[in-house]
Amino acid sequence: EVQKLNQQLEEKNGEIQQMINQPPYEKEREILRLQKTLAEREKAQATSDVLCRSLTDETQQLQRKLASTAEMCQHLAKCLEEKQRKEKGNSDDQIPTERSNQVFLQLLYNETSLQALICNLQEENRMLKQKVAHV
């Protein structure tokens, strides 16, 4: 392992000597290339940061909508339950109105869709963070 490290050290020293022995214009060209690469990476990082912030904001907004929808579903379920109890008290044969059921089912569908969208956004956010870390 020590020999391997010594060999790597010698290789690095060789690279340094090669850079020192290069003509000045090649050194400047290498510096410019490295500066350009650094600028590209900084730009990519800034873009990734903006995308991450945007996704975070959107995720929070969707979570608030989901909470609101869930609250509305609970309220409608409670209203439907009360209505069914009243109808059952009036007549055991009556079934809940079709419209109430449709509204309730639509709200449940919307909540499920929002949950799926949030999961997708969280996965995309995770992937972007991995890409940022990789860059």
UniProtKB/TrEMBL annotation:
Coiled coil: none annotated. One of its GO terms (biological process) is regulation of transcription by RNA polymerase II. The gene is Tnip2. The keyword Coiled coil applies. Residues 1-14 have a biased composition (Basic and acidic residues). The keyword Zinc does not apply. Keywords: Coiled coil. This is TNIP2 protein. Residues 1-25 are annotated as: Disordered. GO terms for cellular component: cytoplasm.
